[in-house]
Amino acid sequence: MDDSNWKVPPDREQIRFERWNKLTKQENMISEQWNKRSEQRHTVPVVNISFVVINVVVWMMMELLGDTLDGAYIANYGGIYPKLMEAGEWYRLFTAMFVHFGAEHLANNMILLAAAGGKLEAAVGHVQYFVIYIGSGLAGNIVSYYIMMHTGDYAVCAGASGAVFGMIGALVWASIRNKGKLEGLTTKGLLMMIALCLYYGITTAGVDNWAHIGGAVGGFVLCLFLGKITQCLKLFKKLYILCTKK
User: Fold this and answer.
1) Collapsed DSSP state (helix, strand, coil) of residue 176
2) Where are the beta strands (DSSP E) in 149-199?
3) Cys bridge to 117: 47, 48, 136, 159, which one at CB 3.0-4.6 A?
4) pLDDT 10s digits, 143-163
């Protein structure tokens, strides 16, 4: 019996292992090429710039129509006030993020947003940055509303500070993920920044510290959560290719 042409059937596990390694090498090559291109060109933080422009334009329009230092005026144009929220105007949790009390309030938030937001958008991408900004802003406003309802100390609240603190909170996680450093920022430095901003808020009248805390925690959690989702999607993609490829 001539068995010179007989071959041992390939092991399926071995084939899958080889395919996995091949996919990993391809993914690493693509990542290296992407990183090189990213280093060669400066990524414009278009989402962050858009948010800054929107906040400034909204404030300018409101300033032309009335007094942005007037609490009643701010409440009429989207600020948070518990009694109005109880009447079903929940949209204020969103609109309050783009309304500011005067030029100084706007300038303080926009300076921090321009500094922190651009770095975060470069680190996590446009889509994730958009989700973190809106999500942390909503988180800050929800916490602020809950505290006012719990204490009974009602006030008109507005501003992008919840979202801005969300950017800093998200940068804390991004720096932790990057072994403590991110584009010249360190985890310790970012935590110190949050502490100093909160201290300023505590020692200054009329500052909504609960919105700051809620925003910072929301940004940190969202950045962590979205990063995990991205990793899981990449893993599922690999598994799908392995299972469907013949």
Assistant:
1) helix
2) 181-182, 185-186
3) 48
4) 999 999 999 889 999 999 999
Q: What is the mean pLDDT of residues 110-125?
A: 87
Residue corresponding to tokens 């509303």: 145
In sign, the C-alpha dihedral spanning 228, 187, 184, 131 is positive
3-class DSSP state of 182: strand
**Residue 212 known to be catalytic:** yes
Q: Residue 82 contacts by C-beta under 8 Å, 6 or more apart in sequence?
A: 145, 148, 149, 154
The yes-or-no answer on residue 105 being catalytic is no
Structure tokens, 61 = 């329009």
Within a 10 A sphere around the Cβ of 117, how many other Cβ atoms? Answer: 27
For tokens 């329009």, what's the residue? 61
Q: Nearest-CA neighbor of 144 among 76, 192, 216, 195? A: 216
- Among 100, 136, 144, 161, which one carries the catalytic annotation? 161
d(CA 145, CA 168): 22
